[in-house]
Amino acid sequence: MDKFKNIKLNRENSQHLYIQLSNAIKKMIVTGELEPDTKLPPIRKLANKLGVNNVTIVNAYKHLENENYVYKKVGSGTFVKPKIEYQEMGLHVPIDTEFNSVGNDSKLINYDIITNDVTINFASGMPTPDLFPVSDFKKALNEILDTDKGNAFGYQESQGFYPLRCSIKNYIKSYNIDSETENIQIISGAQQGIDIISKALIDYGDVVFIESPTYRGAIASFKSRSARIIEIPIQEDGINIKSLENKLKVFTPKFIYVMPNFQNPTGYTYSNNKKEKLLDLAKKYDFYIIEDDYLSELSFNNLKGFPLKSIDKYDRVIYIKSFSKIFMPGLRLGFMIFPLSVYNDVISAKHVSDISTSGLIQRTFNLYLRKGIWQKHIQYMQTIYKKRFQIMTNSLNKYLPKQVHINLPKGGLNFWISLPNGFSSNELYNLCIKNNIVIVPGSVFYKDKNDSNYFRLNTASVYTEQIDEGIKKLSNILIQFLKIYGNKELRPTTPLL
């Protein structure tokens, strides 16, 4: 209780008292003054200490809970949530927030290093700026402003702009997905979709399954809801079904989070057989499947990866699709298809998150879809990324040392590469940074790992003409790294540069 004695609430401030209190407690959590699982003061005691009514404390605690800083235990009170790493990790954000530390010394990434002109960025999933369809978007935006005028700036219903949902219903038929508009939820990017599902379905201590490794933003979201996370190994043809079945005999998950096509970070794609088996297990053991459709459009072997949702005969799949990754990431737009059994929970969680996704962006993108501009943009991006994919594949085969194993995907943007056992990709990352190369160490993609011998390369943020040069440079770094770190006697003391 003593830690709260210095909180000052200003009644002359236009900001509500409960918001002031919420912000003060939030600061104490972020700075570490309040440690994870610390119990917040009882409502009545804190109200008396601060000279406010009980409702102010209730609203402040509720606000903190909605923002994932605290959790409630029925009959016990409100507690600080366990500290999580950067919430915005993985492909949905720029590299400076992809991960916030590597190694035991938790050194922060130097943003200036990552964004300088000589850096070759094999880490970020954000497209290079030359690929943004600025001219087309500007025309569509101006047309919406001319036709819709002030209506374009109003709130939309939480579920999303109805004409856009109708357009998406028609668009996803090209993925062999049939859905009604009432099952479609507009979201502000895939990360928000994951967060909405977390809020809608996860209670404190609930079990959720994830692929291992997987997208870090999903791990962070599930941790923020105090879920019990169980990792299931992923293989080159999809999740390890035997391991999954064994876990299902012990645990009862609310859902499993998967990326069946060109998975992040591995690039693996599920076989048709494993997709069918996963659906059968969801039916048998009564759990949902959260499908993050991660760039299934970017198939480079003439075999389009079909979504799990397209064969969802049991209505167990909650399908999340982002437009941002190959459009303009800053616009944050996507959609979700969900069973009506979770309708009320999803709509409520979306409303709490941000009321509704930008109406102006929704209307503009609806025009994109109706006029076929989006479809043309997809074709353009496929051409660009296929060229990068081919150059990347050739360069990796040409330059990388034989001790390094490359898994060549069939599409997407990611290349999952393994060092020999015992070598640290965290240490490799630090060496690469000194040489103006950025990679992502594999530890980022696991629930609790501090280190890994895997690392990820991505072709989204590197220009075509940089790829061969960058891989050649990376290979020289790897040769030096393997030589020095292969001598265990030198490992503790010898600097790499």
Tell me about this structure.
Keywords: Aminotransferase, DNA-binding, Pyridoxal phosphate, Transcription, Transcription regulation, Transferase. Residues 15-83 form the HTH gntR-type domain. Homodimer. The model is unreliable at 84-113 and 488-497 (pLDDT under 50). The chain is globular and about 70 Å long. It starts with 16 loop residues before the first helix and ends in a 12-residue tail after the last helix. Strands 4-11-10-9-8-5-6-7 form an eight-stranded mixed beta sheet, sandwiched between helices. The chain has a four-stranded antiparallel beta sheet with strand order 12-13-16-15, with helices on one face. It has three domains: 2-80, Winged helix-like DNA-binding domain superfamily/Winged helix DNA-binding domain (Arc Repressor Mutant, subunit A, Orthogonal Bundle), CATH 1.10.10.10; 95-130 and 376-485, Aspartate Aminotransferase, domain 1 (Alpha-Beta Complex), CATH 3.90.1150; 150-371, Aspartate Aminotransferase, domain 2, CATH 3.40.640.10. Strand 1 (70-73) and strand 2 (77-80) form a beta hairpin. The protein has 497 residues and is α/β, with parallel strands linked by helices. It has 15 helices and 16 strands.
Features:
Arc Repressor Mutant, subunit A; PyrdxlP-dep_Trfase_major; 497 residues; alpha/beta; Transcriptional regulator, GntR family domain / Aspartate aminotransferase; 15 helices; Aspartate Aminotransferase, domain 2; 3 domains; pyridoxal phosphate; Aminotransferase_I/II_large; eight-stranded mixed beta sheet; transcription; single chain; disordered C terminus
